[in-house]
What does this fold into?
Amino acid sequence: MGHSIRGTNPIYAKGFTLLEILIAVSIFASVLSTIFISYTGTFNVLDQTESRANIYRMARITLERMQEDLESTYFISRTEKSESKENPLESTPFMGKDTEIDGRDADTLSFMSRAHVVFDEEENGTGIAMISYYVAENEKGDAFNLYRSDTSQFEKTPEEGTGGLILCDGLFSVDFTYYDGDGKSHEKWDSKGDELKDKFPVMVEIKLSFIDNSNTEVPVKFTLDVSIPMGRYTNETTN
It folds into this structure.
């Protein structure tokens, strides 16, 4: 009379043991861990892909600019020099220096070119300019910036290693190799020196190495060979 049957009902008697709860929690944690790893892995791949894409885009733009500059290299002949002693372009140097920063290639190059870039609307878009490439460390000191200086023939050339705008950043090294008319390679070039006086290289090999944030120990390397039309001419006329 009046007795409860709750304690004897198998529905209420059935429950979870501590071991079963621990197993369930373990499985749930494993599933969450798998989802998290897949989630972060996907984003890491996306970050790496975006980083590589930025490097390839910057390298393409930089090399295209340098190719146009070098292919437009200007040389004033001896005849032109003799006809106009007051010509401001009496000397048309092609100077490539083999330099390093912290043991890494940081070469510089200066030459006259018709590939003058105009930023001032009032300035004449045609003309000859002194183009210079030089390297400097960025503010953090963990990478190089490549600068391009573009000075019109009628302007005062800035001090070496100054002026100009950043052509690209995030570089590990910058290396130029020069080839003469006989196919011999040179790590530096001086058209004012005795050995290569009044001569330009027939080809310049550009090597750019970029720091890859996804793998900082292995730089991303790009190489471009640029023919110098004036190189053949200067080698023929000075021999």
About this structure: DSSP finds four helices and eleven strands in the chain. The helical segments are 10-13, 18-71, 78-83, 229-238.
